[in-house]
Amino acid sequence: MVKKQSSSTVSTLASKVLSGTKKPTSSDAKKLAASVLSQDETKGQRNSRS
Predict the structure, then answer these.
(1) Which of 7, 3, 1 is nearest to 34 (CA)?
(2) What is the Cα Rg of the chain in Å?
(3) Could you give the count of Cα atoms lying within 13 Å of 26 in the half-sphere of its Cβ?
(4) Residue 10's closest CA among 31, 37, 41?
(5) Structure confidence at residue 46 (pLDDT)
(6) Count of CB atoms within 10 A of residue 33's CB?
(7) Is 40 helix (H, G, I), strand (E, B) or coil?
(8) Residue 22 CB burial class (10 angstroms; 0-12, 13-18, ≥19)
(9) Cα distances (Å, whole numbers) of residue 32 to 1, 36, 42, 47, 50
């Protein structure tokens, strides 16, 4: 099975946002969300556990 992986650019962006060294723009948030969703192997909605 091929594992999906984020690009180094997206990984660096995520690191900077999470560490607080960069405030994400709307474009940054979209890039990060797109990366996460593209790696979702179970496609579709799940029941929330909250």
Answers:
(1) 7
(2) 13
(3) 0
(4) 31
(5) 65
(6) 10
(7) coil
(8) middle
(9) 23, 6, 18, 22, 23
Q: Give the contacts of 41 (CB within 8 A, at least 6 positions apart).
A: 4
pTM: 0.70
Contact residues for 9 (Cβ-Cβ < 8 A; gap 6+)? none
**By the 8 A CB rule, do 13 and 34 touch?**
no
**pLDDT tens for the chain, residues 1 to 50:** 667 788 899 999 999 999 999 999 999 999 999 999 888 877 666 666 66
Tokens 């797109």 -> residue: 34
Amino acid at 13: L
pLDDT at position 49 is: 64
